[in-house]
Amino acid sequence: MERSLVLVKPDGVQRGLVGEVIARLERRGLLLAGAKFMQVSRALAEEHYGIHKGKPFYEGLIAYIISAPVMAMVWEGPNAVVAIRQTMGATRPLEAAPGTIRHDFALEVGRNLTHASDSPENGAKEVALWFKPEELVSWRRAVDPWIFEK
Ligand code: DAT
Ligand code: MG
Fold first, then answer.
1. Which of 1, 20, 117, 129 is at 20 to 30 A from 30, Cα to Cα?
2. CA of 91 to the centre of ligand 1 (A)
3. Any alpha helices (H) in the chain, and if so which ranges?
4. Total domain count for the chain?
5. Is residue 62 part of a domain?
6. What is the residue-level pLDDT of the chain in tens, covering all 150 positions?
7. Residue 109 Cβ < 6 Å to ligand 1
8. 115 belongs to the catalytic site
């Protein structure tokens, strides 16, 4: 079972979209494994977005993610990374497919509401960066066999 970090970024929190994001992931069938509402430190932001250091939008991205609290979560499921990124939609909201979160609620790449891990390897890395092992819950739902084939 794959795991992905999911963030509802400061714009999503400010706009009251935490519940909307959670509802869509729940309805998709994904399983929540951890959640915390938190203010992101500059150090965590810089480590999380280290891959983008030096890009023109980097400073704005760091300022955005630390500007107000975020809802940080871990979601799991079969092919969770691809499934979650599909539910989020393309990075640029104007390129996101109708029915995705970024299409339905956003307009600009610098206010695109959510973060989700982009590979299973980065999912594992980001989960370890954002969550302590004891903050994660390993559990199964009675309905899982009706959602997960195996
Ligand atoms: P994603 O968040 O879809 O994984 P990414 O990892 O390429 O996208 O970039 C991280 C964030 O950085 C993205 O959510 C918004 C911002 N960003 C990316 N490209 C940008 C650009 N060209 N201009 C402004 N912000 C950008
Ligand atoms: Mg990314």
1. 129
2. 6
3. 10-14, 18-28, 42-48, 58-65, 80-88, 101-105, 120-130
4. 1
5. no
6. 999 999 999 999 999 999 999 999 999 999 999 999 999 999 999 999 999 999 999 999 999 999 999 999 999 999 999 999 999 999 999 999 999 999 999 999 999 999 999 999 999 999 999 999 999 999 999 999 999 998
7. yes
8. yes
